[in-house]
Amino acid sequence: FQGGDTCEYLLSSGRFLGEKVWQPHSCMMHKYKNSEAKNCLTDKHIVFIGDSRIRQLFYSFIKLINPQVKEEGNKHGNIPFEDKSSSIKVDFLWYPEVNGSMRQRIKSWTEGSVAKPHIIVVGAATWSIKIHNGSNEALAQYKINITSVAPLLEKLAKSSDVYWVLQDPVYEDMLSESRKMITNEKIDAYNEAAVRILNSSSRNSKAKVKVFSVSKLIAQETIMKSADGLHLPESSRDTNAMILMNVYCNKIMKPIDGSCCQPQPPLTLIQKMAFCFFTLSIIGYLIVSLIHRNNYRKNKSCTDLESGEEKKPSIGTPNVSTLEMLLHSFCKLGLIMTYFYLCDRANLFMKENKFYTHSSFFIPIVYILVLGVFYTENTKETKVLNREQTDEWKGWMQLVILIYHISGASTFLPVYMHIRVLVAAYLFQTGYGHFSYFWIKGDFGVYRVCQVLFRLNFLVVVLCIVMDRPYQFYYFVPLVTVWFMIIYATLAVWPQIVQKKANGNCLWHFGLLLKLICLLTCIYFLSYSQGTFEKIFSFWPLSKCFELNGNVYEWWFRWKLDRYVVFHGMLFAFIYLALQKRQMISEGKGDPLFSNRVSNVLLFISVVSFLIYSIWASSCKNKTECNELHPSVSVVQILAFVLIRNIPGYVRSVYSSFFAWFGKISLELFICQYHIWLAADTKGILVLIPGYPMFNVLVSTFIFVCVAHEISQITNDLAQIVVPKDNSTLLKRLLCIGGFFSGLHLFSAIQDQSRH
């Protein structure tokens, strides 16, 4: 199902999501702010020509530029509007009938050197029906008049955007006696005549008057709320004005969440190079694979000439060479990236806006939680936050976050605040997991660092190249990458304090605590010194990684939002491992973590704390104020959950394999959703099967999960090849990677130069 001409769809078809949200067929509509509208329409002249209905559209349109405008002035006369700050001029010209006067006005713009309006919006018919009492002669005259006007509009359409607004239906029961002759049957006849004449006049011409017919669909749903049965309610007029703004401004402003009327972005130099690389990888893999399998067949069955017996070949498949594995991985990755590009960069598939309802969020949540319970199994070990448990935790959190994104639940503040805790919990696990590894293993080698950095960043780097997006756009990966490096630096700098050293002398524990206090102090200082933070990350090459829209404010905001939780994770790991070493906790199968009394008290406090946080988050009224408190209080619910999940022995001894499976690919799921499950860089929803929302979600979800799983496998395979254990080989690979990023930066600079 092709997206097709999204402008045509925007002007002619769509449906309501709920009562007030209009969804165009196949594309997404951007909600323009006053500043955006002014930027788009700077130095433009817009003219609305017609009757009282066009006047309504005129007022809704200029309120997008200046919301303070009041609907005043002569109702049956011309109304000027000017925004001097942006040099925008919008005029309403009162021509309630398509007649000689309207024709003369339009003709004046086609003659000589008269300045033509940039946008012309025309429409009229109801006055003709009313004045002539709905006679057939009036309809015949309307056809003659519009036939004389059509060539002039076509001529203007060569240099201006011209829109003919079809007549909206009326609510006949509410019409006054003087308007009873305006029936929907008559309106349909006038609309049909206008469309037929305008289409026939543009048949042999490249220029085309755009027919604004979507207003009819909107009116059919809302006209019963009209005050007089003729004029649309304000919300419907505003929707029409927003559609008009999208038709004209999307190709100029290129908003991410406004896919209607946006042309497909041209391929960049780096994207072309990536396409060539993946094509060569596919060809190379096919050649190597054919040669390898051909040699294998020759050697598979060989006859012993002396005994005449056939030797049995070794059981199994042919040995796969490193080159073949590398090419195979890039071959699969190339096909997957093609799918990514087609979904979110080519105008091939449809995209729709999100629309939040409580049922669209909470019903899937209940469904997946029930599924998770059905897949309960025993854990291999019963330690606190064991591997199966952390995978399960990541899995159910990721599924909840995915449902949150596709349902558009960010508009509902209580849900938003709880999702913020889930993101914080991921970072808590980052602090807990990496601290535990370095503390127990004492492995600060380059191999470990490179493995982690490669697994975290490989997919994002590829997407930055293929999808032409900055690194900071995938904000979570830069966040966990930076925090990993901070944890590494904190523990690796002199003196290196690890568990083995601390066991020999308890004073080392105080040394580690001192390191953690220094880390906390630095975090606190940077969180209240935006200028210093921005200076640090504005230095090249960090600026290339952390800038978004020309500055690092977004990066500072994301970092600040969960600034303490990684530290909390490190501190929790330190306390837990110290207690475990001194055998102050019991981690046997079925045993409570502490004595029964202590366990019951801690469990009660945890449940109460968990509920108190949820009540506070649900009662939030102001997102900014709640975000300010979030970094300090999110740890309350995280620790409460950890204790509830681990204190009872039975609960600690089981896990959901369903959630754990998703947890193993949680990073890939989080990143892939941007382009092949959601659309327009997460602002909308990908539509593979239009007209069947549930079936569409099932199909796109299945493909999305399979792709995420496959990318996880590819990343693991490539990590073994690209990051070898041998230090000398690893050093050579690092030099190659450095050269690759240097080349990428060079081509990026050339690309930016050509854009400007």
UniProtKB/TrEMBL annotation:
<dbReference type="Pfam" id="PF24536">
    <property type="entry name" value="NXPE4_C"/>
</dbReference>
<keyword id="KW-0325">Glycoprotein</keyword>
<keyword id="KW-0012">Acyltransferase</keyword>
<dbReference type="GO" id="GO:0000139">
    <property type="term" value="C:Golgi membrane"/>
</dbReference>
<keyword id="KW-0472">Membrane</keyword>
<keyword id="KW-1133">Transmembrane helix</keyword>
<keyword id="KW-0333">Golgi apparatus</keyword>
<dbReference type="Pfam" id="PF07779">
    <property type="entry name" value="Cas1_AcylT"/>
</dbReference>
<feature type="transmembrane region" description="Helical">
    <location>
        <begin position="629"/>
        <end position="647"/>
    </location>
</feature>
<comment type="similarity">
    <text>Belongs to the PC-esterase family. CASD1 subfamily.</text>
</comment>
<dbReference type="InterPro" id="IPR012419">
    <property type="entry name" value="Cas1_AcylTrans_dom"/>
</dbReference>
<dbReference type="GO" id="GO:0047186">
    <property type="term" value="F:N-acetylneuraminate 9-O-acetyltransferase activity"/>
</dbReference>
<protein>
    <recommendedName>
        <fullName>N-acetylneuraminate (7)9-O-acetyltransferase</fullName>
        <ecNumber>2.3.1.45</ecNumber>
    </recommendedName>
</protein>
<feature type="domain" description="Cas1p 10 TM acyl transferase">
    <location>
        <begin position="253"/>
        <end position="734"/>
    </location>
</feature>
<feature type="domain" description="NXPE C-terminal">
    <location>
        <begin position="22"/>
        <end position="92"/>
    </location>
</feature>
<feature type="transmembrane region" description="Helical">
    <location>
        <begin position="395"/>
        <end position="416"/>
    </location>
</feature>
<feature type="transmembrane region" description="Helical">
    <location>
        <begin position="561"/>
        <end position="579"/>
    </location>
</feature>
<feature type="transmembrane region" description="Helical">
    <location>
        <begin position="659"/>
        <end position="680"/>
    </location>
</feature>
<feature type="transmembrane region" description="Helical">
    <location>
        <begin position="692"/>
        <end position="711"/>
    </location>
</feature>
<feature type="transmembrane region" description="Helical">
    <location>
        <begin position="355"/>
        <end position="375"/>
    </location>
</feature>
<feature type="transmembrane region" description="Helical">
    <location>
        <begin position="473"/>
        <end position="495"/>
    </location>
</feature>
<dbReference type="GO" id="GO:0005975">
    <property type="term" value="P:carbohydrate metabolic process"/>
</dbReference>
<feature type="transmembrane region" description="Helical">
    <location>
        <begin position="446"/>
        <end position="466"/>
    </location>
</feature>
<keyword id="KW-0812">Transmembrane</keyword>
<keyword id="KW-0808">Transferase</keyword>
<feature type="transmembrane region" description="Helical">
    <location>
        <begin position="269"/>
        <end position="291"/>
    </location>
</feature>
<feature type="transmembrane region" description="Helical">
    <location>
        <begin position="599"/>
        <end position="617"/>
    </location>
</feature>
<dbReference type="InterPro" id="IPR057106">
    <property type="entry name" value="NXPE4_C"/>
</dbReference>
<feature type="transmembrane region" description="Helical">
    <location>
        <begin position="507"/>
        <end position="526"/>
    </location>
</feature>
